[in-house]
User: Fold these one by one.
Assistant:
Number 1:
Amino acid sequence: MDNLVMTTPERSVMDRVDRPAEPIPADEAVPACTLRIKDLSIWYGDKRAIDNVTLDIASNAVTAIIGPSGCGKSTFIRSLNRMHELVPKTRVEGTVLLQGEDLYSSNVDPAIVRRRVGMVFQKSNPFPTMSIGENVIIGLRLNGVRNQKFLNERLERSLRMAALWDEVKDDLHKPGTSLSGGQQQRLCIARALAVEPEVLLMDEPCSALDPIATAKIEELIYELKTTYTIVTVTHNMQQAGRISDYTAFFYLGRLIEFGPTTKIFTNPSERQTEDYITGRFG
Amino acid sequence: MTTISAVHIPLEERSAQTRMASPSRFGDKAFELLTLTMALAVVVLIILIGWQLWNGSSLAIKKFGFRFLTTSTWDPVAEQFGALPFIYGTLVSSLIALLIAVPLSIATAAYLTELAPLWIRQPLVSLIEMLAAIPSVILGLWGIFVMIPWLREYPFPLLKRFFGWTPFFTGPIYGPSMLAGGIIIAVMILPIITSVSREILRSVPNLQREAAYALGATRWEATRIAVLSYAKKGLFGAVILGLGRALGETMAVTMVIGNTPQIAASLFQPGYTLASVLANEFTEATTDMYVQALFEIGFVLLGITILVNLLAQLLLRTIRTTSATRAVQ
């Protein structure tokens, strides 16, 4: 697993040179919180799905979002890269600051937001018409990268980071959908990593996987947090306990409690949190 | 406990029969038989039609043999029948129609499923379906009185000016022509290709779109990499469905194509299709051989339609095996 720790902050700053769309000062020290969410409310039509949430997402850490079904976890995580806007008639109030820039200010292009805040979904969704290799580099191609050498390097590095390289290096031309479910999910992670996002969102990334594949993804998340800021939604309390540094508990669209995972799980200050974690409801 | 033991039969005394055998399912059997009969009826119908056409043209087939397909003389008086100009006209007019209708239909379908604001979608869909409901003969009239004069006035001279150096746009511009026929067929197959394509694009899982958007794709990029490429097999099927319609299209084409059995490179020249000659000449076919020849025309048309469909399916299979296209999961 040593090959995974080949990334340093200097490198990621260097890499940004090839992405001129992102104005990131090279000398800026990494702030402690990559994402700051302030007074965020989201409506679908008349229905308020997220109600006045304020939350700071720590850099290079895993933040888990937990809560019963319908509590707004998915909406919340999708609002962090404006994916929820794919549903018609959404409305947002409040701010989400990514490295100090508001994602929702009027001159921001959601496509650029999504290049900086990557996402992995509940069900793996590789592009079935593309090979494994093409699946990984499609994001870079969309960014206009044509340099084949660079693409090949990035392909290998992304697959290594997703702990998939050794399993697929001889089959890069095969269709992405020829892989097993767990491998497909790691392929999707590699695809998200290839564009070097600053934040990686994971919406229940293991919910469709068997325990062994789940363990691999969890291990991967643990490794990836050295380089990335990760926000993950999970239904699985044990998983939240295992992989996350911070936990946010949502209920009916409101943030009930947020803090270090150890505290939330051992000594929650809210009654509802305790009830949910101990399995009394949800 | 006592009540239970009263009805309890020791395991070894129960025969496999009483535990596993299903009760007789008359309904299932009847339903199966009914659906099987219906499905077979379709096959039998096609075979019967084919046989009828074959039967009705047996004398002509015996007399002309392969020459029927390879010669161009159509002279009922001299009883010389060669169908080549009609075959050519059918294929070329359908090809023109596809070239025009396919990009338009798929673009329309993509607009309707991916881009159009919600409020505009349903009205647009209804309009397109209304286009399909226009009777063929009305479209033909429109073709004669509106489309052809307009084509003769503007697009045809322009084509001649800019593409006159190719053999396809040379010679005098009459109006009724192969190109006019192709265009009217395009109008007629547009609705079917559009609505089938739209259904196919709608069936692309949202997860695919999300995958593209999450990588920072724009709407066009997401439509291209996630939707159109995912759906290309189904879209091909929609095109083939349109082609099947195009080949057999009769009334409107007959009214605008000029009905001259000739093979001309220029698309401004009139042409003739298999379906048109059937429609035009059946009532005036007086001799037995004439009727036989027209029956054979019908047989050839059926054959071409079936052949094109088979080829398309073969092509589809090659796409499936050579490219990375596979069913997800």
Number 2:
Amino acid sequence: MSSHFSNEPMLEIFIHETSQLVEKLEQSILDSEKASCYTLPAINEIFRIMHTIKGSSSMMMFNNLAALAHAMEDLFFYLREEKPKDVDCNSLSDLVFEGVDFIKLEIIKIKNGEEADGNAALLINRIRHYLLSLKKEDGKLDLSPAEKGAEVEKQHYYISQDKPQVQVPQNHYHAVVYFEDGCEMENIRAYTIIHNLKDLTSEYVYYPEDIIENDESVQIIREKGFEIYLQTECSYQEMNDFFMKTVFLKDLKLEKMERTDEPAWAFRKAQKAGEEAYKERSKASVETALHREEKESLSTGHPSIISVNVQKLDKLMDLVGEMVIAEAMVTQNPDLVGLQLDNFQKAARQLRKITSELQDTVMSIRMVPLVTTFQKMNRIVRDMCKKLDKDVKLEIIGEETEVDKNIIEHISDPLMHLVRNALDHGIEAQEDRHTKGKPSKGTITLEAKNAGSDVVITVRDDGRGLNKAKILERARENGLLYRPEEEMTESEVFNLIFLPGFSTKEKITEFSGRGVGMDVVTKNIEAVGGTVTVDSKQDCGTTVVLKIPLTLAIIDGMNARVGKSCFTIPTTSVKQSFRPKATDILTDPDHNEMIMVRGQCLPIIRLHKLYNVQTEVRSLTEGIIIMVENNQKTCCIFADELLGQQQVVVKALPNYIKKLRHIRGLAGCTLLGDGSISLILDAAELADYR
Amino acid sequence: MGKVLIVDDATFMRATIRLMLERNGFEVVGEAENGAVGVAMYKQCQPDIVTMDITMPEMSGTEALKAIMAYDTKAKVIMVSAMGQEVMVREAVMNGAKSFIVKPFKEEQVVQTLRKVLSV
């Protein structure tokens, strides 16, 4: 970036705002395309967005961005002003989307600290051509010289002349005004002078005359200055003061003259009529503006919003987490046991109440509705429908559901994969749907809802459904079958598609089918402690359900003790806990311990062995077995005893431990109420541990 | 003297102008994101000078200017415009805007414009 002010916070605001605007823009285009027409409010909005992007990026010296935004702004300006009929909505949307994509790409480059060096020239040219073709179709282009003439006629009101010419003031002046280089719009600046001059006198002429209509006047003013002849009663000093007030004044030549050149005054008389008409008009518009202002000031009670750096929120969350623990350490302090402390208990209760309110509030600050994530899918569906020649409607339900900001980042990619898969593999071609007697328009439904401390996101299509035989065949080929085929339930078969290296699509398409999609989904969702399941019915469709915790920061955990150590298991993955009977315990030929639970043989993981903890409870029948399940895999964890269940604040393992070596089966750690550290177990990793 | 109200729908532009002004001893007393809010805030904060964007949702800068001028005939409003908005800037000047700056502008241009208009 070659900007004259490379302020980091400025750049951040620029990136943030521009990306938000682009999102809004995309939505606006999609809506318009759906309605297959661009309504005036939509055109207005797009125009404004382009205008803002143009302004901001030109300030940041991202000239290619500014140029592109300018071209788009021109296009939508024309649409707004001329309201041409028969605009080809499709090609317009395509064009605008290309622009949006360009802007997005540049923003990403800027974000990554690279040079925003994309070349928009071709695209700008195409936008210009499109605009030209619009004008041609409209017949506006051929008319334009004549029309321009008419406009010039209309705008000849800029010289005020209200007073009768009889009172001829005594003093005559000649002034030449030079503006500073680079102040732009010199013609309007000249106009400003003339406008202000009206307060002093009504007798003046100036050169160049056509300061508004003629762009060349800018050049003339730049080179030769702006010349004014005027008659007034004011003294030289007063006139000099008047001109010195001019903003961006570089030089002024002001001289008093003996008499004026009479013919120069003559031309103005004809213009009186036009001016009157204009005054009426502008008066009317002031009134309507005032009316609107009255109405709008009533509704000015808008919520004031500030944007906060996420890192600060993370820090705040961390602190509140610490405080929750500290609160527990105080109120459940072992020193208090057996003491009669009424006042202390009262204060402690108050502290607990406030702490939990604080915790809820901080959590809610971090909550972001899924709406933007969901709406991104609209664009994907649109693009794919066009390329694959399918007709698919995206239905969005419950987009107001909120999840933690960190989680949103993790589910955007998986959702994209799922929607792509549904459209590419799920929804059939139009003819196929016809022969099956389905509506030719396919439907993909994105649904989000709260379920306890989880958010459930469903991606449903009404396509051909999963083919069980094909899945099994593919699983066999790739050696992914972990159990005999005939023993597997239907849902187990379907869930095979989430295993790494699985793809049933023979042909690799542009959008999906590289055979990495589905296991990326699983990985991403598991990374935030969620689960993925799939259900399907032949020719009726496929449903993928993502279950995601509301937040990563606080989980419900089951605490278990091993020797003097404490472990926490996320309650979501705990299926049951029990004390085993000696008869249920088996040992396989490799001396791995197994246990029979309801006819299923499950591996036992002894925590004291795995993490080398000293404990007296070594016999399985004396301790407790906790059965955990994650992603269809089940195992049994052996611990000394259960301590109970509580909400715990998840902390990542400190870096110095992580760097030392990767410890299997640990998701993080937490502090318990008594100040001791508990390790949080990762059920999925443990289940894999054989 | 030097209380400024910034009216602009773009957060970035508001922040930029604020930065430029505060570096030069101006006091930014308010920021408004559209014309309607701008007018309301003008009445509330009574600034010495206003920088007013032209293209904004809800109520455009030109309309807000008219409303402010109707409320306070001595109001000093500077339009923030972009190339290609000559017609609108002229209309603004006719309706009482004291001056204008053109995006992309430099810090000294903004500061000079405000100082000059304030000194009148």
